[in-house]
Amino acid sequence: MTAADAASTQSRPFEADVAKLLHLMVHSVYSDKDVFLRELISNAADACERLRYEAIATPALLGDDPKPRITLILDAEQRRLTVEDNGIGMNRDEMVEALGTIARSGTKAFLERLQASEGEAGTNLIGQFGVGFYSAFIVADHVDVISRRAGTQEAWLWSSDGKGTYTVGSADAADAPARGTRVVLHLMEDAKTYTERAALERIVKAQSGHVPVPIAIVDKPGDAPAEIADGAALWTKPKSEITPAEYTDFYRSIAGQFDDPALTIHYRAEGRQEYTTLVFIPSTRPFDLFDAERKGRIKLYVRRVFITDDVEILPRFLRFVRGLVDSADLPLNVSREMIQESPVLEAIRKGVTTRVIGDLEKFAEKETEAYNKVWDAFGAVLKEGLYENFERREALLGLSRFKTTTSPEAWRSLKDYVAGLKENQTAIYYLAGDDMARLQASPHLEGFRARDVEVLLLNDPVDSFWVTMAPSFDGKPFRSVTQGEADLALIPRSDSSTDQKPADDAPTADFVSFVKATLGDAVSDVRVSERLTESAVCLVAPTSGPDRQLEKMLAGSGRLPAGAKPVLEINPRHALVESLIGLKDDDAIKADAAHLLLDQARVLDGEPPSDPRAFADRLARVIGRALPS
Q1: Is 478 helix (H, G, I), strand (E, B) or coil?
Q2: Sequence-distant (≥ 6) Cβ neighbours of residue 206 within 8 angstroms
Q3: Strands 401-404, 537-540: parallel, antiparallel or unpaired by DSSP?
Q4: Residue 432 near residue 547, CB atoms below 8 Å
Q5: pTM for this predicted structure
Q6: Count H helices, E strands: the chain?
Q7: Where are the alpha helices (DSSP H) in 482-608?
Q8: How many other β-carbons are positioned within 10 Å of the β-carbon of residue 2?
Q9: How far apart are CA 454 and CA 428, in angstroms?
Q10: Which residues, other chains included, contact 23 with Cβ-Cβ below 8 Å and sequence gap of 6+?
């Protein structure tokens, strides 16, 4: 390096997110440190694949070295491990962007989860998520990255000890790879086993044996490389030649996770479009599952050339699926933007989506318990499709599972629900909210429980939306138990008895009219309830418009500034209401009681009283009257 080059070297601080992540890496006690090698090899393979793609338009980038490769160089004497590739390489700006910032939101999600955890539970999270280049600091106290971008002459050196800053500047051209990137890890004392060939071969075969780039190992500097992985693309092999362990290893490599796949889908489509699909349903949630962009993670290849992972092959409600599609029909020299609009890709999208949903249906039918675990992890995401995708709605309703009043612990399908309909029951009833315990205790369920009518308990935010877009299943409409009339009169009670003796109609009607007049515009109506058997009051939504939960969500987000006034339902057989009906010549107390009944209904609905001071004053007056003077 010349004096001018040395002068151009700059020291920079890491961005805040990187600094936090590196601090956790360096100071964590992590039992399975092998993850770093998988991450570095994965980065190297991506660099080789990107070069293959760019070389389609610019063949000169390959020069006289067209075959991609990854080389591991061991140096036990200096306690160094080098991971080198002859891929696309990086220039100075790309180094700063790639190695000094966290650009991928999933890594940020990982960081937040890791910081929220403590002790061994927190450190074990590292092995469940790919943290890329930064994982090198699990085993190294200093890392040098030397890179030369394909088609350029300049080489660059990035260097850091992972303690808050890094330097980047010109590298000695004679000491840099002709093309690609060399990552040199100066290993910690307790990580020197990573300079042993047997250890490296074991890790590569276990975690990276199926990357589509050959991997070679050099026992010490100056020795000839020996190939330890041939770079054969796993998805091109017949299924009969692939073991479950090989599928699992490939899944972990491509998904950046360490769980086992719950379901593997591998097939070749032939006909108007030819493509190979190898995708996996994870068994645990990826950290970026609820990323605001809701982007998928399916890689697109064309004749084994990696094109992009930034194209939507599966709809967003299947974004938890990991894997790849390799097309034989898409042109190699088309831009990624044009690929996105390609009719060939649209046909592939439709075919892959149909196959994934179909295989999930078979999985749900044949392996119920295993599928229920998948639903536990990804049900909330799959239900987004009920709201967004009319074409797939019927299939997704069949895949959906629910907790219900008769099965609060185990998942139930809508097919099971419909099979258990009661006499004269014509609808699928549901109750939506944000807390399962509160849903189970809701007074709205009392009349349904008295008749053993099963009610779906929906506590995911998306539930309040999809039920408005999915009008029915198997001919039975969805109906909220918090909206409109309950219509329970035709369904017999489970104890074979008639409803309790009705209250005297005239006094009840007079009391209901009094409450309605007293409350005025605070409610849209006051009526006798069919749905209450134990509680005195409840609030329901009018028949038209959103149900109670959706109304709250829309109002909370500012999309429904003036929601419809609720209906107050009164149970005339409740002891408190009976006493109020029988109260004579004390309209002041009855007026206070009317407002207190409304506030009681609000509290039962998870809301505070509309006017806390007025509520306290009224309660004091009513209690004061009840106490002996």
Answers
A1: strand
A2: 34, 249
A3: unpaired
A4: yes
A5: 0.72
A6: 22, 23
A7: 505-519, 548-556, 575-581, 587-604
A8: 9
A9: 8
A10: none
Q: Which domains does the chain have, with CATH numbers?
A: 3-232 (3.30.565.10), 235-371 (3.30.230.80), 402-480 (3.40.50.11260), 505-545+555-626 (1.20.120.790)
pLDDT recorded at residue 582: 86
Residues (pLDDT < 50) of the chain are: 1-7, 29-31, 103-107, 118-130, 498, 501
Distant-in-sequence contacts of 339-342, Cβ < 8 A, 24+ apart = 339/300, 339/307, 339/308, 339/311, 340/311, 340/312
The neighbour count for residue 145, using CB atoms within 10 Å, is 23
**Spatial distance between the Cα atoms of 1 and 411, rounded to a whole number of angstroms:** 66
- Residue 29: per-residue pLDDT: 40
Q: What pLDDT does residue 92 have?
A: 93
Residue 347: what pLDDT?
A: 93
Task: Let me know how long the chain is.
Answer: 629
Q: Residue 439 has which token pair? A: 């849903």
How many Cα atoms are found within 13 Å in the side-chain-facing hemisphere of 271? 6
Instruction: Give 222-281 pLDDT, tens digit per residue.
Output: 999 999 988 888 899 999 999 999 899 889 888 878 889 999 999 999 988 899 999 999
Alpha carbon separation from 510 to 80, 504, 533, 548, 572 (Å, rounded): 90, 10, 21, 27, 12
DSSP 309-339: S-S-SS-GGGTT-EEEEEESSS-TTS-HHHH
Query: Which pLDDT belongs to residue 103?
Result: 46
Q: Where are the beta strands (DSSP E) in 364-494?
A: 401-404, 412-413, 428-432, 455-458, 472-473, 476-480
In angstroms, rounded to a whole number, what is the distance separating the alpha carbons of residues 601 and 539?
Answer: 6
CA nearest to 181, candidates 69, 66, 300? 69
